[in-house]
Amino acid sequence: MRDTIKSKEYFDEYILKMSEGIKRFEEGIAAGKYLNDKILFVKDYILQKKIGIIIAKYSKGDSIEEIKKEFESSLDLFGEAWDDSVYESNIIFASLAYLLNLDDGKLNIIKNKLRKSETYDSLLDFILIGNKSEFDTSKISFPRPYKKLVKSINDEDRDAFLKYLRGWYKGSVDSAWYGTHELVNKYQYYGYWCFEAGAIAKRLGFIDDDLKNEQYYPYDMVHFN
């Protein structure tokens, strides 16, 4: 177990329920249940559920190698149906792709998809490509919530990085996943992980031995080779 809030049994049930939901929607598509103009929406919904399962498996303590395989299996659906209008989701997907050591070809496929978004920016580009010489602090779509993370990149400032990481949950109060661990008899919580912090720590080569048990920090994924 990597998560400290819920039990293994909870995550097993979460994964089962999400998998059953995905199966129903896939069967609905195959049966022609949805109008053509709704199919991409349904496929994006399926993809979001798949990402939830991937994160839940990380929380549960599953092998990162197996998590990587599952993530890679979602790339075709990502290319077809990903809704790139939600910046936070783009950040999570890009960070997972880098932390799971996808090869450069796959990272470029993701970049080429995400760069079509109106909010594609220097932060997403740095996570995916890692070219610090092209990092431009004036090209950040949402500078306020990511201010400390941007500073940590621009100045290679570990203190700013730690402030971002440790304030991440509190600063995410408007996110759809915020507080889901408190819901009773509902399966929406898949774990709280600041994947973008992990991606930046890995890109910048920050020493993170002291963060092995840090809440929200995906230490095992940062050190996956």
TrEMBL record:
Domain PoNi N-terminal intervals: 8-107
Superkingdom of the source species: Bacteria
Domain PoNi C-terminal, chain residue ranges per copy: 121-221
Pfam families: PoNi_C (PF08929), PoNi_N (PF08928)
Name under which the protein is recorded: DUF1911 domain-containing protein
Species: Ruminococcus bicirculans
Transmembrane segments: none
SUPFAM superfamilies found in the cross-reference section: PA2201 C-terminal domain-like
Stored InterPro entries: PA2201-like_C (IPR028983), PoNi_C (IPR015025), PoNi_N (IPR015024)
